[in-house]
Amino acid sequence: MALLKWPKPGSNGSVPPEGAAEGRMSLMEHLRELRNRILISFLGLAVGIGIGFVYFDPIWNFLEEPYCSLQQAQQLRPGQCTLLVLGVFESFFVNLKVAALFGLVASSPVWLYQIWAFVTPGLYRNEKRYSLMFMGLAVPLFLAGAGLAYLVTDTGLAILLSFAPEGTLTGLTIDEYLSYILVMIVIFGVSFELPLLMVFLNVIGVLPRATVAKHRRMTIFIMFVFAAIATPSTDPFSMVALAIPMVGLFALAEGFMYLRERRASKDEDFSHLSDDEASPLDLGTTDTDQIK
Asked: Region labeled Disordered — which residues (predicted)?
């Protein structure tokens, strides 16, 4: 059976990870490890979904608060927030969606760890140092995006519902509202992960900072277009609420890439070279040249 080998160490000081059976692992061993990690991820997700079913009422009360804070939510029953159920199975599917969302978020440390535990053995030592940072930032970034989506949901709904003509009553179904807020949470949460993906691609050498700087204006324009298309509402407030944080995180990611590449150029590691192999010469200006 063919064996998978680690790439030859490069000039940037990358060396195969330690404890990887001398850089060799059979294809079947990879597949077995992948199967086990997928099973653990699904087990964590199932536990989270079960907890979501048990605590559905407080979770739902939290999710419906942005809508219930609007005047339009009390038009059908003055003084009471009202969402309509129009189908026999609609209530069950709402419970299932809420539990699935809660389970996905609550179990994120489990399945994110399984992803990184599977990927990091294939990374070089200098790339592997950043895996813990990615693990520590992925969940908070997603939660920050989801929290922002929750905060702007009421404003976005208020703008959209304000277009209703006079003499009409607002009566959203429970499934329509849940779908709206779930899409907002997922889109905002995933969008906040994009700068982390940029840094990861930079660390593994796929996305140099110079490429990012060259296409900066176009990238920012694409972010605004993405925000306009991705948000389920068509109001400009939701678009700007998503685009501005994305641009800010993009700037932070580019700054980190600049600092990392600058430090890497100064602290290039030649420990992977053998004793009889010479390191590259620095042909830059020396102190002696400056004296002359």
From this structure: 270-292
Alpha helices (H) in the chain, listed in sequence order = 27-54, 56-68, 90-106, 108-119, 125-128, 131-161, 174-191, 194-203, 209-214, 216-230, 236-266, 287-291
Backbone angles phi, psi at 66, to 5 degrees: -60, -40
Could you identify the residue written with the tokens 């790439």? 7
Q: What is d(CA 83, CA 68) in angstroms, rounded to the nearest whole number? A: 9
Q: Distances in Å between the alpha carbon of 150 and those of 136, 221, 263? A: 22, 25, 39
HSE, CB side, 13 Å, CA atoms: give it for residue 244.
8
This prediction's pTM: 0.70
Q: Dump pLDDT digits (tens) for 220-259.
A: 998 888 888 877 666 677 788 888 988 998 999 888 888 8
Q: Which two tokens stand for residue 148?
A: 């922002």
Q: Are 38 and 115 in contact (CB under 8 A)?
A: no
Name the band, by pLDDT with cuts 50, 70 and 90, for residue 19: very low
| Residue pointed to by tokens 């993009």 | 250
